[in-house]
Amino acid sequence: MVATGTSRNEVPATLKPDYDRASELKAFDDTKLGVKGLVDAGVTEVPRIFYQPPDDFDKTSVLSGDTHSSIPVIDLEGIDKDVTKRKEIVERLGEASETWGFFQVVNHAIPVSVLEEMKEGVRRFFEQDDEVRKELYTRDLTRKLVYNSNFDLYSAQATCWRDTFLCIMAPDPPKSEDLPAACRDIMEEYSKQLMKFAIILLELLSEALGLKQNHLNEIDCGEGVAVLCHYYPACPQPELTMGAGMHTDNDFFTVLLQDHIGGLQVFYQDKWIDIPPVPGALVVNIGDLLQLITNDRFKSGGHRVLANRAGPRVSVASFFCTGLRETSKVYGPIKELLSEDNPPRYRETTVRDYCSSFDETDLDGTSALPRFRL
Ligand SMILES: O=C(O)CCC(=O)C(=O)O
Ligand SMILES: [Fe+2]
Fold first, then answer.
1. 317 ligand 1 Cβ < 6 A
2. Which domain holds residue 225?
3. What are the backbone dihedrals phi and psi of residue 154, each rounded to the nearest 5 degrees, phi first?
4. CA-CA distances (angstroms) from residue 371 to 164, 329, 354, 366, 374?
5. Global pTM?
6. How far away, in angstroms, is 84 Cα from ligand 1 center?
7. Which atom in ligand 1 lies closest to the alpha carbon of residue 243?
8. Range 172-176 contact pairs with CB under 8 angstroms and sequence separation of 24 or more
9. Which ligand 1 atom sits closest to the C-alpha of 230?
10. Could you give the number of structural domains in the chain?
11. What spatial distance separates the first Cα and last Cα of the chain, rounded to whole Å?
12. SS3 for 157?
C-alpha cells in the first residue's frame, strides 16, 4: 500500500489507476482508524490512494503573505450601538460576499474560551482510544454521529489526508448521549452560540443585499446546521496529497473555526490565496445555495486545504443548510432582487434536492450549481 518515493511530476494519473484502487480503498476503510491510523502506524510515505492529480497543485500559482490580497477581517464591535459603524460593516460584508465569497469575523460574541475548548474537544475525539473510535466509524449517513475518513471515499478520484465526524446540531439536535463523550458538552455549547451568531450574520447579509433585516432569517437560511469536525494528521509528503481538494460548499453559508496550523486557501482571480489563521476569528464563506438565491450576487468561493507536515490540524466547519429531511421548502432567486435587467438565473429547488448530490459534490471539486442554471 505504501508508494515509492516519486516526485510530484511523476505521480501516475489517478484517473486510470494502474493498481487495484478499489481493494486498497476497502482495506483502508476496514481499518476504521482513518488517516490518523496510518500515521500512528508510522507510515513515512503517502499511500497511492491519496495521490492527487498533479494539475490540482500546478495549474495556478499561490499568492501569500501580501495583506492586500487576503480576505477581509471584519470587526463586528459596535454593530448595535453605532448606525454609521453598522453601515460600514454591512458594506464590507457585502463587498466580500460579492467578490471573494469569504471573510473572517472578529468580535462575533462567541467567547474565545468556547472556540478553544471546541478545538480541544475535536482533538480529544480523534486522539481517544482506538477501540472507542472504531466503534463509532460508519458510512451510514442516517446516524446521529457519522465518523469516517472521506465521506466520498469510494467515488472521489483521490482520497484526502483527512478524517471527519459530523453531527446535525439543528433544528433537531441529537440527545446528549448520542453525541461523542469526548466533546458532547462543548458541541452543545458551541452550537448554541453559533446559532445566535448565524442570526446576526444573516441580518447583516440581508441588509447588504438591500432586503429587510429579517429576510434571510425568515426564509430559514440559519435554521439548520451540520457541524463537521475535521482532523488533518501531519503528512510525511504533503506535496503528493491534499487535506481537502478544491470544492464549493453546498449550503447557504459555512462558519469555519480553524486552528493555528493553516493550509486553507480560496481560489480567487485565478490564484490560490492563503486564508491565514487569525486568533479568535471565524472564517465565513458563502455557499452554493446563497449564490443561487441571490441570483449570483454573492459568490460561493472555491477553496481547498493543503496537507501539512506540522499537524495535526483541527477545524470545525458548520454547514448552514436547513431542511435536509424536509421536502416542501422551495428556494429560488429572491424576487426582490430580480428585475428586467436581472432575470432569474436558476430554477427553484428544495434544499434536499440540491444537497442530495452531497457525496459527489461535497469535496471532490465540482459544484451542483450549473445543473440548476436556467
Ligand atoms: O478545514 C478547513 O479549513 C475547511 C473545511 C472545508 O472546506 C469543508 O468542510 O467544506
Ligand atoms: Fe468547504
1. yes
2. 20-372
3. -90, -10
4. 28, 19, 9, 11, 8
5. 0.92
6. 34
7. 1
8. 174/144, 174/145
9. 1
10. 1
11. 46
12. coil
- Return the bridge partners of 73, or none: 104
Protein residue whose Cα sits closest to atom 5 of ligand 1: 317
Nearest to 145 by CA among 179, 192, 103, 184: 179
Confidence band for 58, pLDDT divided at 50, 70 and 90: low
ipTM above 0.90, yes or no: yes
C-alpha cell at 51: 495521490
230 in contact with ligand 1, CB cutoff 6 A = yes
pLDDT digits (tens, 9 = 90+) for 248-305: 999 999 999 999 999 999 999 888 999 999 999 999 999 999 999 999 999 999 999 9
Q: Backbone dihedral region of 68: left (phi > 0), alpha (psi from -120 to 50 degrees) or beta?
A: alpha
Distance, CA of 87 to CA of 108 (rounded, Å): 16
317 within a domain of the structure (yes/no): yes
CATH number of the domain at 162, please: 2.60.120.330
Phi and psi at 265, nearest 5°, equal -135, 145
Residues 6+ apart with CB under 8 A from 29: 139, 148, 149, 153
CB of 256 closer than 6 A to ligand 1? yes
Which residue type sits at 159?
T
pLDDT > 90? residue 359? no
CA of 317 to the centre of ligand 1 (A): 6
- Whole-angstrom CA distances from 344 to 101, 291, 331 are 20, 12, 12
Grid cell at residue 11: 505521480
| Ligand 1 atom nearest 285 alpha carbon | 7
Flag whether 368 is in a domain.
yes
35: in domain: yes
- For 143-196, the pLDDT digits (tens) are 999 999 999 999 888 999 999 999 999 999 999 999 999 999 999 999 999 999
| C-alpha torsion sign, points 197, 274, 357, 134 | negative
In a domain, 283, yes or no: yes
Ligand found nearest the CA of 101: 2
E strand spans, the chain: 62-63, 73-75, 102-106, 145-148, 163-170, 225-232, 242-247, 253-258, 264-268, 271-274, 282-286, 303-306, 313-320, 330-331, 349-350
pLDDT of the residue at 56? 59
